[in-house]
Amino acid sequence: MSKKNEKKLNKKQQTRRKILKGVAAGAAISAFPAPWVRRVDASDKILLGVPSSLSTPYGVADDQDHLNGSILAQEEINAAGGILGRELELFVPDVDKLNPESCRQTIAACIDKKVHAISNAFLFAPIPAMDESAKYKCPYLQGNTQRNATEAYKAEPEKYSHVLQTDPSEVNYGWTYPLWLQQMEKEQGWKPKNRKIHIVAEQVGYNQTILKAAKEAIPKYDFELAEVTDIQYPVNDWSPVMQRLKEVDAGAIMIDHWVASEYAAFCKQFISDPVKDSLVYLQYGPSQPEFLELGGRATEGF
Predict the structure, then answer these.
(1) CA nearest 199: which of 222, 174, 163?
(2) Which domains occur in the chain, in start order?
(3) Looking at 7-16, 90-99, 291-300, which range is the least confident one?
């Protein structure tokens, strides 16, 4: 064997030894509880906290999607032998996602339960939950599409180093809306009857942040914000909104809301007496299966 090939072989063997040592170390470490869980509190199972809206009149459908996915993953993982032989178990505390104290208490309940990690669809009061989780520091995966959560992390990255956010901030809904209109016009053949935009906005902070971002972006794309109509959950009757939409008669309408069932109700009312030749954009809610289930054929064309 040449010296050159001998060196290559030695290098490969050394690399392989390092990998095997690393695997052995990883397997050994996995036998111990996570550092935020005391050995006395540890069990053979891996416990995942999944805060979910179970009893509130809002957010249940959203969280059920997330919980269903978690259960599916749990069943598949356990059927395959668990995580390094340890069974995965879920702890599902009820949460009112609009109530800051409920958001905090739900994370506290996960901590009391000594969970190994937390997975949460989204909360409208993310900071109290993040602050509570910082006392414990287990991995906290959240789908909070909110700029205030990312700004909090940016300000104190060490405090929130355990928090993982799955999606970008809601500002992108607002910033990209007029860009989308421009692309519809240039590439999809949309011919707006006028350059006016009418935004219907719910009052929760999430929707108000989207509204603010849209206001900043609209003038950059040769459109005009004609009016903002405020709505407040629950919207039991869309008639006043429909009347105002007709009066403003904007070429583009944005419904800046989040509740799928109320979006479905809006669609049913809109198609019965539409604002003629207006392009209607529905933000977030239609991504939920509940929207199509409740709205049926009335949801077509939005």
Answers:
(1) 174
(2) 35-165 (3.40.50.2300), 171-299 (3.40.50.2300)
(3) 7-16
